[in-house]
UniProtKB/TrEMBL annotation:
InterPro entries named in the record: Epimerase_deHydtase, NAD(P)-bd_dom_sf, UXS-like
Cofactor(s) annotated in UniProt: NAD(+)
Keywords linked to the UniProt accession: Cytoplasm, Decarboxylase, Lyase, NAD
Organism ancestry: Bacteria, Pseudomonadati, Bacteroidota, Bacteroidia, Bacteroidales
NAD-dependent epimerase/dehydratase domain boundaries: 4-240
SUPFAM superfamilies in UniProt: NAD(P)-binding Rossmann-fold domains
A cellular component annotation (GO) from this entry: cytoplasm
Entry annotated with the keyword Lyase: yes
Protein's name according to its UniProt entry: UDP-glucuronic acid decarboxylase 1
Leading EC class: lyase
Location (main, coarse): cytoplasm
Subcellular location: Cytoplasm
Molecular-function GO terms, alphabetical: NAD+ binding; UDP-glucuronate decarboxylase activity
Length: 317
């Protein structure tokens, strides 16, 4: 049994990671300040003897006890949330990451960073391999997140080179599934909720921009596999589903699978919204022997069923 810290453990991805690690028999410490996560996501774990909750903001140091591994996920991830207080977002990515790397150094823990496809910005290379350095606007409204995560990757590599910390960097592409808040604001949860209520489906721009959507279970499997690689594998490694859809195609699929009467409406495209995104996952296939198993049809059906059965009452702070 390992002692494993999951920062951001009450969030969408973090709560699935915590559940997986508890089920594997580990002792899990979930550190979260509920900025964009909620207690409902971890309620089913709270009574278990191997789960601990620490309510703390990682921007400030925390005297964690010994841990063997750290999954560092704490950071708002949806554009509407990370843009609400961009200075705070940058502090979380930079100061928060420094604090968590300090914990890893102190306890000689292996540490994994939840980085993002956003570090490629509005990519000029398609699909995106890890070797691509990206096309990020450093002064735009998405920069707090994109540049924050680029800095977090830099800190990870420098702690590895200078302090010999055992690091892993995972670049996560758009992921969806149960556990996303109704107010999350990302495209799949927005469209499903709109469709279930027969409200207008809000497409940004003309809907020709693309994304490649990965179901949460595939991501969790890849995160655990990456953590379990040898110390010589640092990444960065792309983790995502390489099947690409336009946002308009996504809207049409959601309407079809929900049997909704919703109409598609077109709103202005937000500034710096990437035009295309698809991961090259050759490295993950080779090093992790991993590839996604859940296609969009199956994943959307599961998420629609989940949103139908669960009443979403979680409000953000
Ligand atoms: P989320 O917003 O659901 O979860 C983030 C969690 O971190 C929340 O529980 C939040 O309360 C917590 N948190 C935020 N700031 C904190 C702070 N200062 N101190 C302590 N806890 C804090 O988002 P998610 O989709 O689960 O994303 C998790 C991680 O994965 C993020 O780092 C994100 O950048 C990364 N990621 C996610 C996606 C995706 O598609 N979901 C894609 C790329 C990268
Ligand atoms: N989007 C949209 N309608 C919405 C929310 C998002 O058309 O209600 C678009 C958004 O502009 C982007 C794509 O869907 O082009 C994915 O957005 P999301 O916020 O989910 O993730 P990201 O842009 O970070 O990939």
């Amino acid at each position: 049994m390992k002692r494993i810290l999951v920062t951001g453990g009450a969030g969408f991805i973090g709560s699935h990671v915590c559940a997986r690690l508890v089920n594997e028999g580990h002792h899990v410490i979930c550190l979260d300040n509920f900025l964009t996560g909620c207690k409902g996501n971890i309620a089913h774990l709270m009574d278990g003897p191997r789960f601990e909750l620490v309510e703390h903001d990682i921007v400030h140091p925390y005297p964690i006890g010994p841990v063997d591994e750290i999954y560092h996920l704490a950071c708002p991830a949806s554009p509407v949330h990370y843009q609400r207080d961009p200075i705070k977002t940058m502090k979380i990515s930079v100061l928060g990451t420094l604090n968590v790397l300090g914990m890893a150094k102190k306890h000689d823990a292996k540490i994994l960073l939840a980085s993002t496809s956003e570090i490629y910005g509005d990519p000029l290379v398609h699909p995106q391999p890890e070797s691509y350095w990206g096309n990020v606007n450093p002064i735009g409204i998405r920069s707090c997140y994109d540049e924050g995560k680029r800095c977090a990757e830099t800190l990870f590599m420098d702690y590895h080179r200078q302090e010999k910390v055992r690091v892993k960097i995972v670049r996560i592409f758009n992921t969806y599934g149960p556990g996303m808040l109704s107010h999350d604001g990302r495209v799949i949860s927005n469209f499903i909720l709109q469709a279930l209520e027969d409200k207008d489906i809000t497409i940004h721009g003309d809907g020709s921009q693309t994304r490649s959507f990965q179901y949460i279970d595939d991501l969790v499997e890849a995160l655990v596999k990456t953590m379990n690689t040898g110390d010589d594998f640092l990444g960065p490694v792309n983790i995502g589903n390489p099947t690409e859809f336009t946002i308009k195609e996504l809207a049409e699929l959601v309407v079809e699978y929900t049997g909704s009467r919703s109409k598609l409406i077109y709103l202005p495209l937000p500034e710096d919204d990437p035009k295309q995104r698809r991961p090259d996952i050759s490295l993950a296939r080779e090093k992790l022997n991993w590839e996604p198993t859940i296609n969009l049809k199956k994943g959307l059906s599961r998420m629609i069923a989940h949103f139908k059965e669960k009443e979403y009452t979680h409000e953000l702070k």
